[in-house]
Amino acid sequence: WTDRGFVFHYLGMPLAREEIQSTLATDITLILPLILLGILTVLWSFKPEVRFLIYLMLQSLLTLSLAAIFCLWWQISLSLEMFILLPVWAVVQWMSILHNTAAVDQASMEGIQNPIVAGLRRILMPSLWVYLTTLIGLLALSLSHLEWIQRISWLGAGGVLLIYLSTFGPGLVWVFWYHGSIGIEPPRAASRLPIWLSRITSRVILP
């Protein structure tokens, strides 16, 4: 038949991929709330401060929103690889938040003027190197001859880059809000919006 000009295509893998994508798109409204509930349960077991949990969730929602916009812009659909990478992205995001918070707290205990700015400056370069090494490690997977490993490589590296830009970009608003709300005075030029958010949150969310 091929000698007569007929072309045959394997339908198994494309159909399986389409079925997985449609299933993920259908179940995403159920899966994400359950994941968030599980995460909150684990975090709550460590008895953290309520404001810190709010800070963690606000930063995570900001990163997820930017990721959704990015996926819509580049027409990237949900895939199994994304769910495999979710724990990796979550660990990178939360470890970065914890290190930022610890650096500012340390600067405050040392009595440094403007401890928020000093702490962030102290943690910026170490965080940059950690993110760069993580990016290099993920991009190294793109050398694999397996297509799905290559997709994990590019998706993982793109997610880590987005987390860095989100955490040290617009996400700094939440850093100033959190540390301002627990008594560390932020610099005046950078604190107008965070203090406004702090007042709204203190009156509406927290009694």
How do the helices and strands follow one another from N- to C-terminus?
HHHHHHH
Low-confidence stretches: 187-207
Q: DSSP helix count?
A: 7
Percent of residues in β-strands:
under 5%
Biggest sheet record: none
Shape, please? elongated
Fraction in helix: over 70%
The whole-angstrom Rg is: 21 Å
Mean pLDDT: 77
Structural class: mainly alpha
Number of strands: 0
End-to-end CA span? 76 Å
Can you describe this structure?
- The protein is elongated.
- The protein has 207 residues and is mainly α.
- The termini are far apart.
- It contains seven helices and no strands.
- The model is unreliable at 187-207 (pLDDT under 50).
- It has helices at residues 12-45, 50-74, 80-109, 115-140, 147-167, 172-181, 188-204.
- Helices cover 79% and strands 0% of the residues.
Overview features:
mainly alpha, 7 helices, elongated
Task: Furnish the topology, listing elements before pairings.
Blueprint: H1 12-45, H2 50-74, H3 80-109, H4 115-140, H5 147-167, H6 172-181, H7 188-204
